Amino acid sequence: MGAPPEWESHALARLREAGFRESRARRAVVAALARRECGASAREIRDAVEELGVRIGVASVYRTLELLAELGLVRSIGAPGERSSRFEPAAPDGSHHHHTVCGNCGNVETFEDPELERVLAQLAERLAFAVDDHDVTLRGLCPDCLPRSLAPRDSRSARR
After folding, report:
1. Which of 18, 64, 67, 100 could be disulfide-bonded to 29 (CB atoms 3.0-4.6 Å)?
2. pLDDT tens for each residue of 19-57
3. DSSP summary character for residue 7
4. pLDDT in tens, 114-133
């Protein structure tokens, strides 16, 4: 479920329309984001940018991400226990997915649920509220961590 194929060209065009210079660093951050399946931290994006042959500091990545967020081109996903957010492209057509975040290992997975979208639309109608955007993040334990959370911590606690 990576960025839609047109996201990279859309993001670069939106930057130009907003009067921002298309620097090599900005192009590289946009290109790195466009290749991601889901959210990435600023450090992961910097590493991906360097794999594209562009040297860039984390501060430049953060500045570019802030700009992209202001323009509605990226979404921020906060994960518990992480010092920083994860970022992912926002689809030009408004389509989106939601996330599960494991509080133990930090794994972030995406999901889509048409029934959830239908319920949210009904809720907005009932509240007479015009929803511009929404983000659902389910926090808990992933399938890999769930069995470990149910297991005894050590052999002594199992005997009590």
Report:
1. 64
2. 999 899 999 999 999 987 677 888 999 999 999 899 999
3. H
4. 999 999 999 999 999 998 87
CA-based torsion, 36, 41, 45, 47: positive or negative: negative
Give the position of tokens 């984390």: 58
Helix (H, G, I), strand (E, B) or coil at 139: strand
Confidence of residue 159 (pLDDT cuts 50, 70, 90): very low
Note every long-range contact of 22-26, with CB atoms under 8 Å and residues 24 or more positions apart, other chains counting: 24/54, 25/49, 25/54, 25/56, 25/60, 25/64, 26/64, 26/67
64 SS3 class: helix
Q: What is the pTM of this model?
A: 0.69
Q: How far is CA 32 from CA 9, 16, 46, in A?
A: 13, 18, 8
Evaluate whether 88 touches 33 at the Cβ level (below 8 Å). Answer: yes
